[in-house]
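Entries read chain and fold; for instance:
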Amino acid sequence: MIPADLGSALANHLWQSTLFAAVAGLLAFALRKNPARTRHWVWLIASVKFLIPFSLLIAVGSRFGWSSGPALSTSGFSVVEQVGHAFTAPVHASPAVIHSTVSVPIILVSLWISGFLIVAFVWWMRWLRVRAAVRAASPLPLEMDVPVLSSPALFEPGIFGIFRPALLLPDG
């Protein structure tokens, strides 16, 4: 069983990262007419966020004494603190309330894992399809840095593979 502290921290990180990914998706959609490198940077920053939980950033920030500078409004700080610890049970809560808040992170983590498994399965099926097309392809006599293959599959031209990349072109 996952300890309550670790479970709530994991649930916080997962929902915050999901929210951050949704915002990054909306931002990338809004920037669709900009160069691809702009959208790449949006998704790169979102990917880095997945590695660093907000609660860790808040804990690191609380170690510093921010006595100088403009004072933050208490409502803004309250929102940031609530986002950072959404699934933390209140100290003065009864055991029934604590039990109900512990089950919410478990439900959310289960939903997130289910979504992750569905997306991973779809990607795996697409990878198998591309792999089969590369294996069924025949080599073309072109002088290139990577092997050039002609495939009967209906794919657009592209480089496929990480360790043994190949340029896959449609027949004809």
Q: What stands out?
A: The mean pLDDT is 77.
